[in-house]
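Batch job 17 of 40 flagged for manual review because the log was empty.
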Amino acid sequence: MTIGQTTIDELRPDEIEAAVALWEACDLTRPWNDPRADAGRAFAGETSTLLAAREQGRLVATVMVGADGHRGWVYYLAVAPDMRKRGLGEAMMRAAEAWAADRGMPKMQLMVRMENAGAVGFYHAIGYQTEERLLLARRLADD
């Protein structure tokens, strides 16, 4: 997919460090999650991938997308701070939606940290709705 001078396709394995740097710049990483391990798991399976946007060879946005057999899931949507407010975040989400729809997923879901009001506003603006759910989790391994 191409938007102006920006192309969106799959992240290359040699771009993982650049992706992690972008995620850190966007405050997406947390000490208890190893972003390199997350990227490796996305590349290792047939039901997930990392999409990347590049402009003039520079990685400017990412989104991790997966399909669990029932729904599509999104993680690590990141747009370089100097590239925001240009529609790139929405373009990345539409690319992730297309990836999930191509695999038969009827719904896309994502999680946003409660304190991230900016992200919630962004997702609402592009058509996502807040659903009342309680998220439960249990660690099976340390990253």
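Reviewer: the log was empty due to a logging misconfiguration, but the result itself is present. Helices lie at 16-25, 35-44, 88-102, 117-125. Unflagging and moving on to job 18.
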